[in-house]
Amino acid sequence: MDGAALLLVLLVAAVPLSAAGDAHPGYSDEGTCTVGADLRRLEEGGGRGRIIDITHAYVPDLPAFATGAVTGPVVRLKESMADGSEYNLSELRMECHAGTHVDAPGHINQAHFAAGLDVDTLDLDVLNGPALLVDVPRDTNITAEVMKFLNIPRGVRRVLFRTLNTDRKLMWRKGGDMSYVGFTEDGAQWLVDNTDIKLIGVDGLSVAAFDYLISAHVVFFKTPDIIPVEGLKLDDIEAGIYMLHCLPLRLVGAEGAPTRCILIK
Amino acid sequence: MDGAALLLVLLVAAVPLSAAGDAHPGYSDEGTCTVGADLRRLEEGGGRGRIIDITHAYVPDLPAFATGAVTGPVVRLKESMADGSEYNLSELRMECHAGTHVDAPGHINQAHFAAGLDVDTLDLDVLNGPALLVDVPRDTNITAEVMKFLNIPRGVRRVLFRTLNTDRKLMWRKGGDMSYVGFTEDGAQWLVDNTDIKLIGVDGLSVAAFDYLISAHVVFFKTPDIIPVEGLKLDDIEAGIYMLHCLPLRLVGAEGAPTRCILIK
Q1: Nearest-CA distance A105 → chain B (Å)
Q2: Residues A172 and A179 sit within 8 Å (Cβ to Cβ)
Q3: Across the interface, do B240 and A8 touch by the CB < 8 Å criterion?
């Protein structure tokens, strides 16, 4: 039971919160003191854990998917108070697979794309929930052998794989480096055949190593129920279990989307 | 205590999860069965609540900020498997204040903008935590009188204000409608002076009613610690307390950003 649910149980007993249709449209007057006190308690008393941002900031020199390539400018000021406007107003322009982002099934599978399986169809129940952060041996791609070694139990649905990419700070460097590590085709197949993992987080430009770029994606997207989350910032976090919240933009029609992801400890 | 924290307490007693530097780089072998069982229990046994998406999908006919205006195309396919590419690749282009989005302090305050107070500086501890969804009387903007009537207790830091905009389905209509309701200048001032609210969620195009567009924003942004979240989808949800997760893109330099927001009950 999370904090909100727990509080709600407490509140249902103590406070007659009104529904939208009741006389007082907000919530019942007699309950306000309790609502305030209970929300304060929830804020202060361990109602939430420590939040860890595992998203890379979108900056113009974020590495892009080619040797030496950068994303380039992402944000442009369209209206500017410095130029006499009453407000500042920015415009955003980027590839949907830049920085920390999710892949939708239509990214490398045309049947899924044609069926409308865009990022807006990705399951929020997969994108949010308990996740395991594991360390991959630093001298290898994520092969079948490595997956076997990691021995991730059945029932684990979300895994963030920290690799040599984090140690090499590849996502912090200006310019793409195609020597990042990722899944091989047999590693992808092993995951599909032997685990219940539905969300695969990686700390490199892609879930697939460059030599297996298409083939590993093809394996993951045979069925549309696996969500790769790529370009995560996994520096300086202990391996273990966290609550993951990964919330991509609802871009209708897009086969990928930038996202913000956090862990709560 | 949320589910992850609760589980962690259970686990610390039962399972010696290894830190990143230990012999097995992932997690201890002897703990794997317990990790799997505990994660399964967390998934199935009320470890998380029901997720409610309160974000509007980004579609080309989403209302924009002018009478009859729409956002227009947001996503464009840059590489297409239908045209022989090995993958589909989308590009995203939009104003940072379209659809469900957050304002940063630099949006209507040039001193904050010059000081670099962009969306990437917004506090994740404000954007994530317990929130109160309240119903505003349906015949009014959010004035000082309405704020007094709502009587939101001290200690409440996040409030989602549901208004006539939801009943009129304004965010679902093609084309902007400047008759949406929002905060007046005196409503904004009352909130700043008499509450601890730091996150203000609204169901219209802006946190400020059109006639108070600049003046209400100016009040909210006198100090840079209030976060307006605009264009929320608050249809068909009971008023009450939820856990809110609002995760905007980390757009360095931008004074606003599209975001995905969910409630967990």
Answers
A1: 10
A2: no
A3: yes
Q: What is the ipTM of this complex?
A: 0.88
Give the amino acid at A41: R
Pick the CATH number of B96-264 from 3.90.180.10, 3.40.50.300, 3.40.50.360, 3.50.30.50: 3.50.30.50
Model pLDDT for residues A215-252, shown as the tens digit of each residue: 999 999 999 999 999 999 999 999 999 999 999 999 99
- Compute the distance between CA of residue B261 and CA of residue B259 in angstroms, rounded to an integer: 6
A chain contacts of residue B147, beta-carbon cutoff 8 Å: none
Which A residues 8-37 touch B at CB under 8 Å?
8, 11, 17-20, 25-27, 29, 32-33, 35-37
Question: Strand, helix or coil at B75?
Answer: strand
Name the pTM for this structure.
Answer: 0.88
Q: Does B218 touch chain A (CB under 8 A)?
A: no
Q: What is the mean pLDDT of residues A200-205?
A: 98
Chain B nearest CA to A224, separation (Å) = 15
The residue behind tokens 């794309």 is A113
From residue A168, give the alpha-carbon distance in Å to each of A70, A238, B139: 17, 17, 58
> Could you tell me which chain B residue has the CA closest to the CA of A34?
B153
Report pLDDT digits (tens) over B22-31: 334 455 444 4
Other Cβ atoms within 10 Å of A69 Cβ, number: 15
For residue A147 the two structure tokens come to: 């997956």
Q: Are A256 and A141 in contact (CB under 8 A)?
A: no
Say whether B39 and A157 touch across the interface (CB within 8 A).
Answer: yes
| Mean predicted lDDT score pLDDT of chain A | 88
Closest CA to B211 of B179, B187, B189: B179
Task: Domain ranges for chain A, please list them.
Answer: 3-46, 96-264
Q: CB A89 to CB B256 under 8 A?
A: yes
- pLDDT single digits (tens) A50-105: 999 999 999 999 999 999 999 999 999 999 999 999 999 999 999 999 999 999 99
CB A63 within 8 A of CB A171: yes
Inter-chain residue contact A91 with B90, CB threshold 8 Å: no
